[in-house]
């Protein structure tokens, strides 16, 4: 029989964070719209071929859902902090998963536009790499969308 402390350690999840930063050539207000409106999120969050559907109610306690029937995936959650156009916080939960994590996005006006800092916390250690690649991919699409909107 395993030692009781080892069993406990095996059952506890190791939690970690993902941090992403971007310098964007747009005002904080424009970036805020991209982050909080259905048209904004639909335009850049996932690649166009995924036919992204978005529902959002960007107020504290409001809910959001970003889904793709084509890819068979969706994420949803609840807004925890909404301080336009500076700070956005929300929970994050993939459909079919029990675990919920948290995302915080800070926008700071800079000389060239806006500095965006995203922190995704409470991720299980084995999910960090997937979420880091996912956020990097999403945020790589944001500057182009901002330039044409």
Describe this structure in words.
By secondary structure, the protein is of the alpha+beta class. The protein has a single domain, classed as START domain (Alpha-D-Glucose-1,6-Bisphosphate, Chain A, domain 4), CATH 3.30.530. The protein is 30% helix and 41% strand. It is built from 4 helices and 7 strands. It has helices at residues 4-11, 28-36, 38-44, 128-148; strands at 15-24, 53-56, 63-68, 73-83, 87-94, 101-110, 113-124. Strands 1-7-6-5-4-3-2 form a 7-stranded antiparallel beta sheet. A hairpin with a 3-residue loop joins β4 (73-83) and β5 (87-94). α2 crosses α3 (38-44). Residues 1-10 have low confidence and may be disordered.
Summed up:
The chain has 149 residues and is an alpha+beta fold. It has 4 helices and 7 strands; from the N terminus they run αβααββββββα.
Give the overall silhouette. Answer: globular
**Per CATH, what is the topology?**
Alpha-D-Glucose-1,6-Bisphosphate, Chain A, domain 4
Q: Compute the average pLDDT.
A: 92
- What is the string of helix and strand elements? HEHHEEEEEEH
Query: How many separate domains?
Result: 1
- In CATH's first tier, which class applies? Alpha Beta
Parts with pLDDT < 50 across at least 5 consecutive residues: 1-10
Question: Quick one: how many beta strands?
Answer: 7
User: Largest sheet, described in full?
Assistant: 7 strands, antiparallel
Strand content: 35-45%
> In what order do the strands lie side by side in the largest sheet?
1-7-6-5-4-3-2
CATH superfamily: START domain
């Amino acid at each position: 029989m395993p030692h009781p402390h080892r069993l406990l350690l095996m059952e506890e999840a190791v939690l970690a964070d993902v941090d992403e930063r971007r310098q964007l050539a747009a005002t904080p207000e424009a970036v805020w719209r991209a982050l909080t409106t259905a048209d904004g999120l639909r335009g850049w969050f996932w690649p166009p071929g995924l036919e992204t559907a978005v529902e959002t109610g960007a107020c504290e306690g409001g809910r959001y859902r970003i889904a793709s029937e084509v890819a068979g995936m969706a994420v949803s959650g609840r807004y925890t902090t909404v301080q336009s156009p500076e700070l956005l916080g929300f929970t994050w939960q993939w459909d079919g998963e029990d675990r919920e994590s948290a995302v915080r996005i800070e926008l700071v006006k800079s000389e060239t536009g806006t500095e965006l800092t995203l922190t995704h916390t409470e991720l299980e250690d084995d999910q960090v790499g997937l979420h880091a690649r996912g956020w990097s991919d999403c945020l790589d699409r944001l500057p182009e969308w901002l330039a044409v909107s």
